[in-house]
Amino acid sequence: MPKTIYVFGSLNMDLVCRTPRLPQPGETILGTHFDTLPGGKGANQAVAAARLGAATALVGRVGDDAFGRQLIEGLRADGVAVDGIAVDAIAPTGVAAIAVDAAGCNTIVVVPGANGQVGPEDVDRLTGQLQPGDLLLLQFEVPLEAVILAAQRAKAQGVTVIVDPAPARSDLPAAFLPTVDIFTPNQIEASQITGLPVTDIATATAAAHQLVQRGVGLALIKLGSEGAVLATRDRTLYQPALPVTAIDTVAAGDAFNGGLAVALAEGMGLEPAARFATAVAAAAVMVPGAQGSMPELSRVDTLLQSL
Ligand code: RIB
């Protein structure tokens, strides 16, 4: 029976300004382009998985407005099951104000809107659909209590729980990490969560070991263009990034997590799954936008063969 990848998380409309460089606090600069593009870490991860060919469903919340309708339509067109997305009668659809500089680096401010209203009712809608063997992707753009409840219940139902702790939180309860099979912070998130400096492969490995000690099954620290470090109780691995030229790194981490889930759902081992996820992220940074940059499987295969 094919496994389904469930995503429980945010949907945002991304308001993207392209600028030669990112502004300093208090500074006004002139940008060059503006786009309104579908985003949100949850929705991005769902689109990443669906474009790679996996059966994918998203559970979350939008407002009763044009952005919400546009986001749902886009997901449906990408083959993501959207019947788990509720329309909130009061809160507006979430938005993210994003600046992207000439080197593809970004800053993001998210105003959660309806994502902030996600709660136990949404968790019930999710867990009512889960089957043992399915995979669940979680992030921190919806309230932490709901994420914790979803992880706890999914784990008890025999589902693989993959958590992308973005944006970072330093207040995770001790009981949460043991419900997480795979925990995938980036450098900044790993440092905030562990309290350790994470600046290179050696320090990322130390942080990954701490996370495993605290109960996660696999700690995978994403280091952007430096690749990723993976640690379990008995293995430590380093996966280099693919040498591509990034033009927009928005949602690279989401592409990675979607790719990782697809690889694991298809039964790949840890090492090939990490390499595949790295290739999905590399393909995504070569194209502007969040959901718009998520590659089809053929683009990932071509990239892997060309290196
Ligand atoms: O990870 C990238 C995403 O972060 C953007 O699409 C934006 O919506 C924010 O959620």
Keywords:
single chain, 307 residues, alpha/beta, UDP-N-acetylmuramoyl-L-alanine:D-glutamate ligase, nine-stranded mixed β-sheet, four-stranded mixed β-sheet, globular, binds alpha-D-ribofuranose
Protein architecture, described:
- There is one protein chain.
- This protein has a domain at 5-12 and 39-94 and 112-163 and 242-306: UDP-N-acetylmuramoyl-L-alanine:D-glutamate ligase (3-Layer(aba) Sandwich).
- It is built from nine helices and 13 strands.
- It has helices spanning 41-51, 66-77, 120-127, 144-156, 187-194, 201-213, 252-265, 270-285, 297-306, and strands spanning 5-8, 12-18, 33-39, 56-63, 81-88, 94-100, 106-111, 135-139, 160-164, 182-183, 218-222, 228-231, 236-239.
- A nine-stranded mixed sheet has the order 5-4-1-8-9-10-11-12-13, with helices on both faces. The protein has a four-stranded mixed sheet with strand order 3-2-6-7.
- Helix 3 (120-127) packs parallel to helix 4, helix 7 (252-265) runs antiparallel to helix 8 (270-285) and helix 8 (270-285) crosses helix 9 (297-306).
- Alpha-D-ribofuranose is lined by residues 10, 12, 14, 39-41, 44, 96, 108, 110, 141, 250-251, 253-254, 290.
